Amino acid sequence: xxxxxxxxxxxxxxxxxxxxxxxxxxxxxxxxxxxxxxxxxxxxxxxxxxxxxxxxxxxxxxxxxxxxxxxxxxxxxxxxxxxxxxxxxxxxxxxxxxxxxxxxxxxxxxxxxxxxxxxxxxxxxxxxxxxxxxxxxxxxxxxxxxxxxxxxxxxxxxxxxxxxxxxxxxxxxxxxxxxxxxxxxxxxxxxxxxxxxxxxxxxxxxxxxxxxxxxxxxxxxxxxxxxxxxxxxxxxxxxxxxxxxxxxxxxxxxxxxxxxxxxxxxxxxxxxxxxxxxxxxxxxxxxxxxxxxxxxxxxxxxxxxxxxxxxxxxxxxxxxxxxxxxxxxxxxxxxxxxxxxxxxxxxxxxxxxxx
Length: 355
Hints:
Helix content: 40-55%
Number of domains: 1
Order of helices and strands: EHEEHHEHHEHEHEHHEHHHEH
CATH architecture: Alpha-Beta Barrel
Radius of gyration: 20 Å
Largest sheet: 7 strands, parallel
Number of helices: 13
Strand order of the largest sheet: 1-9-8-7-6-5-4
């Protein structure tokens, strides 16, 4: 798809915050990233976990003894699978339109989405884009298990249903957020990709990963939105650089040296007009956050640009096609440290945009 949007260092956040009020979290989003606000996930609520929040509609899901899993061994499961695929086929997902997309988010499981919609009425003049998110298919399908504690990724039909469900939820967000008539960004959160090539994902092929990701990306593209992928650690970055993803959000604080090993692919990726979201603000350790200032982040940004320039990558292009983000969400931090991460992200983005 055409990449005409130029962020030029705009700040953008990852989904989670350590609060209990969605409205308060949304107010913070609009205070620190009014140009590209996102809806917020609050891990304080169990149903806003990475898997559970996007689970509604998947066949066979049961909860027993506080364990959430998929039961595949009865006739009801077969009936639910048939009904799911019929709903998917009738959704017209591959043809953008005004038809209702099934399995969209509901206020009881994603209150942050609806809090953001309310907060953006009337639409603020600052709005440059708006961001949604969905758990990625690799993370989702390796984190959810069947009754035998086997990841559903290894159940071909169930994996197919799960990937299609996530594609529907991503497309639904793109459709809903398009009302603001600014670029829509849907992030696919894939922390599990950090395990690619290790024993965790040893039996999952590159082709299977690429196919699952592409199905969700394609659904986002149908509705004219940009598809981003967030990986909060290191991975084989060629998976994303060779994909049709529009935005790669990487932990530039902790893994820049690993990322730039893919210099030739990165040069090609940027030349196509696509984007980097630099996770420059640390979120992992309290001591790191407390010791970080906008001056240290600014120096870090300049050093990293010089590294790219040495690879023959035009740094003016890099800036034009870059977002500034934290390295990950702040849901596991204290509210005080979370706010500091937001402050640093906003301040660094202002410095970058003013340079």
